[in-house]
Amino acid sequence: MNNLEELELLVKAADSKRAENTIVLNVREVSTLADYFMITSADSNRQVAAIADAIIEKAKENQIEIRRIEGNRAAEWILIDLGNIVINVFQTDQRKYYNLEKLWSQAEAVGTTDWIAE
Fold first, then answer.
1. Strands 85-91 and 36-42, how do they pair?
2. CB–CB of 10/59 below 8 Å?
3. What is the pTM of this model?
């Protein structure tokens, strides 16, 4: 399975738990940390945790290596490091505060509209 196929699975997992404003950035040209960053959000810590759990479960089901998970206690910002893909699940206020989209504004956005249910 390639990175884009993995991303599609993970975006759909997040969407199944009503993740909001999900974006995927191709950061290969601007960072050595990963190939892709996925950023998504929800309004409550319970929903943030549910989204992260769905992503983690989908990764495990598909034998995608999970290198590290940070931020589970407060569920304000959960980071899931899958090596080539780094996923950030934020509470809405935390997402606005950290504004990763601006930090990585030079990265190209990956089209995900076909992956997200309307």
1. parallel
2. yes
3. 0.90
